[in-house]
Amino acid sequence: MSATIDAHVKRFDNLGMDSSVRSVTSASCESDKFYTTTAWSPVKEKRELPQHIATLRVLGKNSVNVNMAMAELLNSHGCVVEHSEQFRDHDIDAYFQRVEFKYETMRKTTEQLEGAVAEVCGRLGLEFQLNWNSRKKNVCVMVSKYDHVLWEILLRHKAGELACNIPLIISNHEDLRPIAEAFGIRFEVFKITKDTKRAQEDAEIALCRELDVDLVILARYMQIMSDEFCSAFTHRCINIHHSFLPAFIGSKPYHRAFDRGVKLIGATAHYATACLDEGPIIEQEVERVTHRDSIEDLLRKGRGVERRTLLHALRAHLEDRVVVYGNKTVVFEN
């Protein structure tokens, strides 16, 4: 058994998995892909949200007064700014800001501060989003048959590296149910055909709303999402595309990249929109390849890039570091 486990650990390491994280599952799992020496209990939350730290994101017309106005506003209400970052897009005369602030010493109610922020933003022609971080975001992961991205998310989550809850995994196949059961996560299958696609998507949307899902992750979910689904989760549905967009949009990008003789392959995490693979890009990474690499080598290297790229995008969204404008994003540093 030890030799078999080592062989599978080596397999995951070769695909780009962090060598400090081992892939295991429940003792009751019958699949020959997953092994463990002790049974797992359902995932226990390890990472707690920072106490009384809120996040304010601002977008609007460029002005030299915005940064000072926000700082004075928060200070006057007894809040303490922990971190502030700004960006100005001079080509479109736009201003972006993200502020983390402590509010445990705030002298007003949250409603009063929100009202004050709304007043200042209205006066300066700005839009804002204020998250009090009173609870962790709920994430639904959607998968088909590829498991490498799902493993990455679930292992990082179990290790306490993702500040979220994962109450649901949705699939159009039964194949990955053993993984969900190993982590104690609800797994629902919605079979998709041409005739049932819209009705099944409506059922998926209803279930996500029932569970207060804040974010949907398309973790190599091999279905094209309808306009209605994308509208239900506008800028709250992240897809990992196995290509460095805008190159090789659509299916089998690694095969087309191989035929083209590229020297770099990559992956793109973006918000899903009605336009296939053209939503606002959150994160991209690349991996160098050579003429010696076969299609299988490109697929192997690509799986590692896909995992890393989606993980970075997921963290950015969970930490409210993304601001969408037009079909672009500003992603503030961690």
List the helices and strands and how they pair.
Elements (H helix, E strand, L loop, with lengths): L1 H13 L38 E9 L4 H11 L3 E10 L4 E9 L7 H15 L1 E6 L5 E7 L4 H11 L5 E8 L5 H6 L3 E4 L7 H14 L4 E4 L8 H6 L4 E5 L11 H8 L3 E8 L9 E8 L6 H24 L3 E4 L2 E4 L3
Parallel strand pairs: 5-6, 5-8, 6-7, 8-9
Antiparallel strand pairs: 1-3, 1-4, 2-3, 9-10, 10-11, 12-13
Helix pairs in contact: 2-3, 4-9
Total DSSP helices: 9
Strand adjacency order, main sheet:
7-6-5-8-9-10-11
The proportion of residues forming helix, as a percent range, comes to 25-40%
Poorly predicted segments: 1-40, 43-47
Element pattern in H and E? HEHEEHEEHEHEHEHEHEEHEE
End-to-end distance, in Å? 41 Å
Care to count the β-strands? 13
Strand content range: 25-35%
- Write down the overall geometry: globular
Would you tell me the structural class of the helices and strands?
A: alpha/beta
Radius of gyration: 22 Å
> Quick one: biggest sheet?
7 strands, mixed
Residue-averaged pLDDT, rounded? 85
InterPro entries: ACT-like_dom_sf, Formyl-FH4-Hydrolase_C, Formyl_transf_N, Formyl_transf_N_sf, PurU
Organism: Aureococcus anophagefferens
Domain Formyl transferase N-terminal: 137-313
Protein name: Phosphoribosylglycinamide formyltransferase
